[in-house]
């Protein structure tokens, strides 16, 4: 398996995976006219973040994640936020996410500008929580609050 940075030509796969992930985890449908430009905006502007893809030996995309950046003035460094995680059902429990996560960790550490990795997970998604804990992550002392002006 190979972990690669997504390119503009991967946009349709990322869009489809994001739509599947939203439906599966939150029962939300992401409209093409919103998610499409959103994915392209990220691919067009590396300052927004990046996508990583897990591909098998045939070049098929088995999983993805997105990384965005949060500046921490307390640490004078950047947290790398893992988001938009999706692994194709037939590829789950085969180490796909582990490889993606390890690549993010390596990239963040090598950047010498990162102070850690963060992510959020649905409260009921015990399987994902266990996966993250098995990779060395721990529950933070923060709760997440939001004002979601887009929610439908």
From TrEMBL:
Domain (N-acetyltransferase) ranges: 1-152
Molecular function terms from GO: acyltransferase activity, transferring groups other than amino-acyl groups
Alphabetical list of InterPro entries matching this protein: Acyl_CoA_acyltransferase, GNAT_dom, YpeA/RimI_acetyltransf
SUPFAM superfamilies, per database record: Acyl-CoA N-acyltransferases (Nat)
Matching Gene3D superfamilies: 3.40.630.30
PROSITE patterns in UniProt: GNAT (PS51186)
Pfam family, one: Acetyltransf_1
Signal peptide start-end: none
Keywords, in A-Z order: Acyltransferase, Transferase
PANTHER family (alphabetical): ACETYLTRANSFERASE (PTHR43420), N-ACETYLTRANSFERASE DOMAIN-CONTAINING PROTEIN (PTHR43420:SF47)
Name this protein carries in UniProt: N-acetyltransferase domain-containing protein
């Amino acid at each position: 398996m190979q972990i690669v940075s997504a390119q503009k030509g991967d946009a349709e796969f990322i869009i489809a995976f994001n739509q599947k992930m939203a439906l599966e985890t939150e029962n939300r449908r992401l409209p093409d006219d919103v998610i499409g430009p959103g994915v392209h905006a990220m691919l067009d502007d590396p300052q927004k973040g990046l996508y990583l893809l897990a591909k098998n030996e045939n070049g098929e995309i088995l999983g993805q994640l997105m990384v965005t950046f949060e500046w921490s003035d307390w640490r004078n460094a950047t947290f790398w936020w893992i988001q938009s995680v999706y692994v194709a059902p037939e590829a789950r429990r085969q180490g796909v996410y582990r490889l993606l996560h390890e690549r993010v960790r390596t990239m963040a550490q090598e950047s010498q500008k990162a102070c850690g990795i963060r992510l959020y997970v649905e409260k009921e998604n015990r399987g994902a929580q266990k996966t993250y804990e098995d990779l060395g992550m721990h529950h933070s002392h923060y709760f997440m609050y939001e004002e979601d002006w887009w929610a439908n």
